[in-house]
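for ur thesis appendix - Glutamine amidotransferase. copy paste whatever u need, i formatted it the way the template wanted (i think)
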Amino acid sequence: MKPFVLLATRAEDVPADEEYELFLRFTGLDERNLRRIRLEAGPLPSLDLDALSGIFVGGGPFNASDPIETKSPVQRRVESEFADLLGLVVPADFPFLGACYGIGTVGAHLGATIDRRFGEPISVVDVELSPAGAADPLLKGMPERFTAFVGHKEAIASLPPRATLLASSAGCPVQMFRVGSNVYATQFHPELDLDGIRTRIHAYAGYGYFAADELDPTLAAVRREPVTHTGTILRNFVERYAR
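the 3d part is after this line
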């Protein structure tokens, strides 16, 4: 089988390593078949799409909507590399699934408006599939309403051109979309479990996702309701595109 690649941007080793373990678990892949590239650690190497089955993008602390002068040199480099990569992926309709930060990269590439109107605090939200989502093969086996972990300061304000809406939540109208037949992005985290989001809450406590005195309420918010279905999306992606 040709390998999949996980493009990661987390500089903190504990949540970065746990993110990789979660992707391995929910995709069912092993380390030989899911290569991790930590973009915050160095430039993106050249990727031969013909030698890959597909690309995943994990989450991270970067915000596409931040003013350019506030972005670190690393963030500016990573954004430039994603722009170049998506310039190949989108025209080729190559299998791609970007989670959280990944939806910002695809949205920015397509010219979507990304701002802070539809940010969601770290929590569990109810997500509802659109009619197109209910019919999409990547969402096979998903209920029309399901719970998911979220936590993002910015979001896509409206569906980008050429994209198909697949899922929404009450607080965020674009939770998942598809471009073409094979390029996907989610605002929620399909890879997370309860332990994983607890790790991130502690790791990013000083990053502005919640106030200093809101740690305990934030930990309680992610226990509001079990999240049991979202990993299906990652398994479906592998089953559909492994070659």
